[in-house]
Amino acid sequence: MAGVTDRAFRELCVRFGAAFVISEMVSSKGLQYNDKKTGQLMLLSEEEHPAAIQLFGCEPEAMAQAARKALAYGPELIDINMGCPAPKITGGGSGSALMKTPELCGEIVAAVKAAVPVPVTVKIRKGWDGASVNAVQVAKRCERAGADAITVHGRTRADQYAPPADWSIIRAVREAVGIPVIGNGDVADAESAARMLEETGCDAVMIGRGALGNPWVFQQVNAYLEHGRHIPPPGLSERLTVLVRHVERMCAYKGEYCAMNEARKHVGWYLKGLHGAAAFRRQAGTLSSMDQLMGLVREIAAANAENFTVEG
């Protein structure tokens, strides 16, 4: 999730039980030109391992070179994005546009696999559109090319994120390949994670949008799968405390100006479901400093019937 899964967010997810995290998408072309911002996307802290660096591109040799450069940042594996539906990515032939050329998918995997000593994984979608559902074909190509695992999102590129994810395609891939398959799409809580595992037979579950403003989802899933125990959602006090700590860490990594621009969307996600959330989200859209955030937090506390102290 570009612009979302930065170091601050990944560290928070690990703290709440995520078993593995993946960087924001890194452009192979950006690495070719030694773009400073591209390099910063690959920075991994000690608190977030094991971690993967995710690369996107459509040229096998450029992807191989990018993977070699990524190793300097200490990832446990390299992930290849073949699922992003964003027009600015697919327009250049990358992301889910690769689903239209299965042979190229295999060539990219083979090149990256030959370039690095760590495992190489791939993220794909159901297909490009409803007329070209080819996740099984692409998965087989990637497996033959040396992929160590594959993540399947149960929607086509044309679907974007709107209709319910088709978990049957995840099962179809699981039955077609011998490497681990990770399911993705519409997992937002412990129960949906358990259902995906049962219905698809996948080896693991990837949670993306379900963690937005909700890093607690990982500990809830773990408790349910391991012990059959339900962990209730956090109270307002904890939600706001974690929000403040999250944004503080963003500021520490990126500087207040840049961090606060990006934090606005996170604040909106944390406030989902609260009394007066719509009005508070509008205020969040203009945040430019930690002082303003703390003022907003105090307003939220006053408007909601719960006594607590926000730390930080």
From TrEMBL:
<dbReference type="InterPro" id="IPR004652">
    <property type="entry name" value="DusB-like"/>
</dbReference>
<feature type="active site" description="Proton donor">
    <location>
        <position position="84"/>
    </location>
</feature>
<keyword id="KW-0694">RNA-binding</keyword>
<feature type="binding site">
    <location>
        <position position="54"/>
    </location>
    <ligand>
        <name>FMN</name>
    </ligand>
</feature>
<keyword id="KW-0288">FMN</keyword>
<dbReference type="GO" id="GO:0017150">
    <property type="term" value="F:tRNA dihydrouridine synthase activity"/>
</dbReference>
<dbReference type="Pfam" id="PF01207">
    <property type="entry name" value="Dus"/>
</dbReference>
<comment type="function">
    <text>Catalyzes the synthesis of 5,6-dihydrouridine (D), a modified base found in the D-loop of most tRNAs, via the reduction of the C5-C6 double bond in target uridines.</text>
</comment>
<protein>
    <recommendedName>
        <fullName>tRNA-dihydrouridine synthase</fullName>
        <ecNumber>1.3.1.-</ecNumber>
    </recommendedName>
</protein>
<dbReference type="InterPro" id="IPR035587">
    <property type="entry name" value="DUS-like_FMN-bd"/>
</dbReference>
<keyword id="KW-0560">Oxidoreductase</keyword>
<keyword id="KW-0547">Nucleotide-binding</keyword>
<feature type="binding site">
    <location>
        <begin position="208"/>
        <end position="209"/>
    </location>
    <ligand>
        <name>FMN</name>
    </ligand>
</feature>
<dbReference type="GO" id="GO:0050660">
    <property type="term" value="F:flavin adenine dinucleotide binding"/>
</dbReference>
<keyword id="KW-0521">NADP</keyword>
<dbReference type="InterPro" id="IPR018517">
    <property type="entry name" value="tRNA_hU_synthase_CS"/>
</dbReference>
<keyword id="KW-0820">tRNA-binding</keyword>
<keyword id="KW-0819">tRNA processing</keyword>
<feature type="domain" description="DUS-like FMN-binding">
    <location>
        <begin position="1"/>
        <end position="297"/>
    </location>
</feature>
<comment type="similarity">
    <text>Belongs to the dus family.</text>
</comment>
<dbReference type="InterPro" id="IPR001269">
    <property type="entry name" value="DUS_fam"/>
</dbReference>
<keyword id="KW-0285">Flavoprotein</keyword>
<feature type="binding site">
    <location>
        <position position="153"/>
    </location>
    <ligand>
        <name>FMN</name>
    </ligand>
</feature>
<feature type="binding site">
    <location>
        <position position="123"/>
    </location>
    <ligand>
        <name>FMN</name>
    </ligand>
</feature>
<dbReference type="InterPro" id="IPR024036">
    <property type="entry name" value="tRNA-dHydroUridine_Synthase_C"/>
</dbReference>
<dbReference type="GO" id="GO:0000049">
    <property type="term" value="F:tRNA binding"/>
</dbReference>
<dbReference type="InterPro" id="IPR013785">
    <property type="entry name" value="Aldolase_TIM"/>
</dbReference>
